[in-house]
Amino acid sequence: MISAYTGKQVRQAEEPLLAAGLGDVLMQRAAHGLANAVVREFKSRGLRTYGAGVAVLTGKGNNGGDGLYAAAFLAARGMRTTAILTAGSAHPQALAAFEQAGGRVLYLSDAASGALVSEAVRADVVIDAVLGTGAKGGLRGSAADLVTAIADARAQARAEGFVVACDLPSGVDADTGAVSTPALAADLTVTFGAAKTGLLVDPGADYAGRVDVVPIGIEEHLDQPGLRRLEDADVARLLPHPARRAHKYSRGVLGVVAGSADYPGAAVLACRGALAAGVGMVRYLGPPEVADLVRRSCPEMVCSTGAVADNRVQAWLVGSGMGPDDHDQLQRARDAVTSGLPVVADAGALPALPDVMAPNVVLTPHAGELAALLKRLGGEEDRAAVEAGTLAAVRRAAALTGATVLLKGATTLVAAPAGDVFSQADGTPWLATAGSGDVLAGIIGALLAQEDSDVGRFREMGVEPEQRWAAVAALGAALHGKAGRAASDACSGGPIAAGGIADAIPETWGKVSMLSNAGVRKRNSHTLPLR
Ligand SMILES: NC(=O)C1=CN([C@@H]2O[C@H](COP(=O)(O)OP(=O)(O)OC[C@H]3O[C@@H](n4cnc5c(N)ncnc54)[C@H](OP(=O)(O)O)[C@@H]3O)[C@@H](O)[C@H]2O)[C@@H](O)CC1
Ligand SMILES: [K+]
Questions:
Q1: Which of 28, 85, 133 to mutate to test the pocket of ligand 1 (most atoms within 8 A of CB)?
Q2: 21 contact partners, CB below 8 Å, separation of at least 6
Q3: What is the reaction catalyzed (predicted)?
């Protein structure tokens, strides 16, 4: 499990060590980790480090100090290092160490700006060490102009060098992931002590690239994480496995209320997602013409009639492919949500549900649907506002509705009403295809139907029982993302259709389970040994 923390939490964890006079030690560890990560990146790209060009954009605070010390390490390895001081001054000891290691120092001024831009475009690696967790707002003034010019010039020249962010890309808010432009999009962010929340949510994640956590010795002082991400080992541990004497009912029955005359295919895709995700039986409830298509497409399906209360299931999936005029289906969706059983509520059901629900109801809006939900509950947010502040929006929706809320996107966020948040980014952009969300709802529905009262495996992972619905939804998002990626990989990274995601689920499930049995190394920053 990756645990992420706000900038404030990390700074608080640093305090006891700073008070003990270990500030410089922490900075040296951070800088050493950053330099090593840069060298590894060169190697993974098949590039030589000796003689390679390094440009470090530095601010006046400790983030700039990290960058300068790291550049001093790189200079000692024979790299040509240039520091561009954006604030007129820099961390004095780090600057002295950098100069002593043979680094070249250039100062930002209007006159020098053009030459500095060329320097950064020519470099094999640009290290962004202007602002870190001490930033108040984004880049300003001449530093902002410089970063804009560098980003433009790199794009125009199709610069081959890569960008590494020191702790976080300057302009990305460490806590919220909100981005104040300009910001330099990094290929890799090397972050210290623990992942920062803002790196694992959109839009911050768009600028962070890959995130590498360098332990610096503050880990034991960190408290509850603000956000978590399931890794392969966690996924494997949470995936249900049938007992030896299981039968189809004991493995869970999912009821599906989905599809309409306009969108019958959504019901089929939701059922295909569910059937592939380990559930004992899937029971469809809906208009006869949709039921016919469901039966013909998936012979494993059982189609029923009547009301929600007449059908015995362990969980419900409601809403995929339903419109505002599907009155009977919407009534079934409402009945499912008030039945007390776990429910995944998607698409067309969202506007028709009560304002207040329970944590075992998982809502799965995209950004536009989440904005509409928040507006209905008295908020001001439009789609753009949700996209600019995904973490705040999903948290707010969970708090207001009392339900678990999953916001679909390149990074999928799941918020429990009590505050836990999970962030999953297992997929590929090819997953943005019609019907993909129906398959996701099917997977989550199937997992909810298999969820029993044994909450021990959640507790072992530090997830409180009442928050487990968010973990189950995150598990569904992880499985969906991995299956989509596997389907695309199977055609050499080509495009996929939603049915292909469902088809890839069983093998993805099996492979992740095998990985866990082989003992996947936990990469949580908490558990990494310190050297
Ligand atoms: N604590 C430790 O021991 C360790 C810390 N570590 C590292 O330190 C980083 C935090 O360092 P930090 O607190 O010095 O702040 P930092 O992010 O460098 O920048 C803020 C500086 O710039 C200024 N400034 C603020 N906003 C601005 C803006 N919008 N535009 C322009 N300027 C702005 C502000 O000055 P002010 O305006 O307040 O006078 C301040 O001087 C952290 O991310 C990690 O990399 C690691 O080495 C581990 C050990
Ligand atoms: K930075």
A1: 133
A2: none
A3: (6R)-NADHX = (6S)-NADHX; (6S)-NADPHX + ADP = AMP + phosphate + NADPH + H(+); (6R)-NADPHX = (6S)-NADPHX; (6S)-NADHX + ADP = AMP + phosphate + NADH + H(+)
On whether residue 278 sits in a domain, the answer given is: yes
Number of domain units in the chain = 2
- In short, whether 18's Cβ falls inside 6 Å of ligand 1 is yes
The CA distance from 293 to 287, in Å, is 10
Q: Which residues surround ligand 2, an ion (CB under 5 A)?
A: 128, 166, 170
For a substitution probing ligand 1, which of 58, 131, 166 has the most ligand atoms within 8 Å of its CB?
131
Tell me whether residue 266 is annotated as binding. Answer: yes
pLDDT 10s digits, 238-285: 999 888 998 998 889 999 999 999 999 999 999 999 999 999 999 999
What whole-number distance in Å separates Cα of residue 311 and Cα of residue 255? 8
Report the separation in Å between the CA atom of 141 and the middle of ligand 2, taken as the mean of its atom positions. 16
Same-domain pairing of 301 and 425: yes
Q: Is residue 530 part of a domain?
A: no
Query: Rounded to whole angstroms, how far apart are CA atoms 58 and 17?
Result: 24
Judge whether 412 lies within some domain. yes
Which of helix, strand or coil describes residue 198?
helix
Domain boundary, last residue among 187, 212, 229: 229
193 and 250 housed in the same domain: no
For the Cβ of 53 lying below 6 angstroms from any atom of ligand 1, the answer is no
Give the relative orientation of helices 498-517 and 436-449 as an angle to the nearest 10 degrees: 40
| Residue 128 labeled ligand binder | yes
Provide the residue range defining the domain that includes 11. 2-229
In angstroms, the CA 31 to CA 34 distance is: 5
State pLDDT tens for residues 324-339. Answer: 999 999 999 999 999 9
Domain co-membership, 339 together with 444: yes
The ligand minimizing its distance to the Cα of 28 is 1
pLDDT for residue 525 is more than 80: no
DSSP 3-state assignment of 57?
strand
Does the annotation flag 167 for ligand binding? yes
447 with 334, same domain: the answer is: yes
Q: Is residue 497 within 8 Å of 264, Cβ to Cβ?
A: no
> Which of 167, 200, 229 finishes a domain?
229
* Residue 62 counted as an annotated binding residue: yes
The ipTM (two decimal places) reads: 0.97
Note whether 247 and 377 are same-domain residues: yes
Same domain? 456 vs 314? yes
CA 43 remoteness from chain centre: 27
